[in-house]
């Protein structure tokens, strides 16, 4: 089991776009082999900061998801121009 923490910082005013895209990404995650569950959290002290916590049966399963065409089709952050910088991912293993 592996948990991935994905930290995202939005351009002000783009929070709703990110939340809507996350809903689409979650649907893709739920179809992927090895995905257990995922949750989106918003920082109450910084409304442009988000954390996605995602549980997978292996890091390889997560990597397959991140490299999948399905993910690329729904999460085109560059096209939407919503991120202030590159996402930061942290891997936690048990």
Structure description:
By secondary structure, the protein is of the alpha+beta class. The protein has 4 helices and 4 strands. Helix content is 38%, strand content 32%. The longest helix is centred in the first third of the chain and has 17 residues.
Tag the structure with descriptive keywords.
alpha+beta, Alpha-Beta Plaits, 4 helices, globular
Could you outline the blueprint of secondary structure elements for this entry?
Elements: E1 2-9, H1 15-31, E2 35-42, E3 49-56, H2 59-67, H3 69-74, H4 77-80, E4 88-93
Antiparallel strand pairs: 1-3, 1-4, 2-3
Short account of what is shown:
With 94 residues, the chain is an alpha+beta fold.
Instruction: Provide the CATH topology.
Output: Alpha-Beta Plaits
The pLDDT mean sits at 91
What is the number of E strands? Answer: 4
Q: Approximately what portion of the residues adopt beta-strand conformation?
A: 25-35%
Report the radius of gyration as a whole number of Å. 13 Å
What is the H/E order? EHEEHHHE
Low-confidence stretches: none
Helix/sheet category: alpha+beta
Helix content percent band:
25-40%
- The 3D shape can be described as globular
Please give the count of helices: 4
**What's the domain count?**
1
What distance lies between the first and last C-alpha atoms, to the nearest angstrom?
Answer: 6 Å
Largest sheet: 4 strands, antiparallel
Give the second-level CATH assignment, the architecture.
Answer: 2-Layer Sandwich
**CATH C-level category:** Alpha Beta
Strand order, largest beta sheet: 2-3-1-4
């Amino acid at each position: 089991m592996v948990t991935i923490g994905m930290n995202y910082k939005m351009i002000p005013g783009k929070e709703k776009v990110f939340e809507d895209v996350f809903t689409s990404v979650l649907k893709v995650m739920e179809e992927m082999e090895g995905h257990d569950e995922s949750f989106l959290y918003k920082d109450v002290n910084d409304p442009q900061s988000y954390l996605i916590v995602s549980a997978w049966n292996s890091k390889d399963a997560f990597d397959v998801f991140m490299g999948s065409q399905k993910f690329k089709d729904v999460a085109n952050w560059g096209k939407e121009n919503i991120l202030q910088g590159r996402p930061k991912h942290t891997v936690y293993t048990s």
